[in-house]
Amino acid sequence: MSKPSRPRSLKETEARAILRTIRISPRKLNVVAELIRGKAAQTALAELTFSKRRIAGTVKKVLQAAIANAENNHQLDVDRLVVAEAHVGKSIQMRRFHARGRGRSASIVKPYSHLTVIVRERVAEAKAKAEKPAKAA
To answer: Given 25, 44, 46, 94, which residue has the most CB atoms within 10 angstroms?
Structure first.
């Protein structure tokens, strides 16, 4: 007997991709995640392609995975996808030590991060404009 299936936590118009234990500090990863938040998926991919940050390639792969999940698992339109959220969280910290003078030591902390990217299908702008009443001039 297996566990009962968990209900879906995202909306019907959303898809997610998660990458855990990335070898970079959350602070540095958040700078790159900040580049793509709220942008169209294609624009975000272009932004990451030409970014000079080392981690940008990894973030691009996670974004491509989220887009693929949206297309293949949830049948969403790829052309209307927007990066709704890009969370960065702390993971483990590797602790090392560095030998110093006079028999002392100093600790070195090598942090890891988690990255979650959620893409959402944008509602048609034409619907939103049609619902607003036109102002009389």
So the answer is: 44
CA 114 – CA 92 distance, rounded (Å): 10
Sheet arrangement for strand 105-121: 14-22, 105-121, 81-99
Domain ranges of the chain: 14-131
Which architecture, in CATH terms, is 14-131? Answer: Alpha-Beta Complex (3.90)
Confidence of residue 127 (pLDDT cuts 50, 70, 90): low
pLDDT digits (tens, 9 = 90+) for 49-104: 999 999 999 999 999 999 999 999 999 999 999 999 999 999 999 999 999 999 99
Q: Are 92 and 122 in contact (CB under 8 A)?
A: no
Residue 126 has pLDDT above 60, yes or no: no
